[in-house]
Amino acid sequence: MSKIKNLMVSFTGDYIPYISVSFPTLPKNSKIKDATISLKVASVVKNENAQLQVNFRNADKTIGYDNIDVIKNFEINSSLVINITDELQHALDNGWDSFVLELVATNVTSVIFVQDTTKTYYDVKYISKCEYQNNSANHEIDLHSAGNGKVNLNTGILNIVHNDIITDNNVLPLSISHVYNSAGANLPEGIENHYGTGWKLNLEQYLVRKTDENSTVDQFVYYDEQGNEQIITEKYYYLDTDKKKVFVDRNDTRVFISQDGELKINLGTEYKTLETLAETSTGFKLVT
């Protein structure tokens, strides 16, 4: 979620109103999987055959994309969902820190969108660069007694797994392997082994808290048995009346710690207890 501004817009003369959106904190070189802006209409003054053409622009409104969506059916209490996946990826790749949605109106006088983050919000699903590389298509190679190899078709990185010991004991199955990664063993900072360049054991798995002073979310890096990195993000949410998860920023001014030590959010009419969820964008969950 991120901040959305200018939710009350009017159309007068040649003036083109806009909705301003600040970027969420995303890892560098992220791959956007899906990005949408959801707007709920609080009031609207329009005539017959009304429509809104949506343009995507940088903060200065000098470059961007025209006509990414045309909205024709919008009434009071209706929800508008605008997909900006490709446009947001372009903005992220080019170093934008915010963007605007221009609304070019036909037969519309004014529109006011609900200023409630549960009704009007900006939602982004993304995968970090390392996860994108780790989970892209692989070409498998049979190396016979030397083991099994995989070449990542996106990065060209070669992985080889050579099995040393495998037991099929149903009580305590055990597998020990030497793992090679042509990009390096990829161990956490400060940790070294002595198996040769690019080699590690599959038993060498680590979970490290990621430190970023500019980040508003808690993140961990899981180094798996093959040396791949998985970014685990801790998210905060509460359940609405329909038992659906509503995610919130931990730095939201409505969030507080109650006297009994629980993390809660003040929704104005009620207090909700916040739960946490730590997982990667591919579904790997951190369980404590």
What would you note in describing this structure?
- The structure is a single chain.
- The chain has 288 residues and is mostly beta strands.
- Among the domains are: 4-127, Sandwich (Jelly Rolls), CATH 2.60.120.230; 130-205, no CATH class.
- Helices cover 5% and strands 51% of the residues.
- It contains two helices and 21 strands.
- It has helices spanning 85-93, 129-134; strands spanning 4-5, 8-10, 18-22, 31-58, 64-71, 79-83, 98-113, 121-127, 138-142, 148-152, 158-167, 174-181, 199-201, 206-210, 218-223, 229-239, 245-248, 255-257, 263-266, 271-273, 275-279.
- The strands form four sheets. Strands 1, 2, 3, 4, 5, 6, 7 and 8 form an eight-stranded antiparallel sheet that branches. Strands 9-10-11-12-13 form a five-stranded antiparallel sheet, with no helix packed on it. Strands 14, 15, 16, 17 and 21 form a five-stranded antiparallel sheet that branches.
- The protein is elongated.
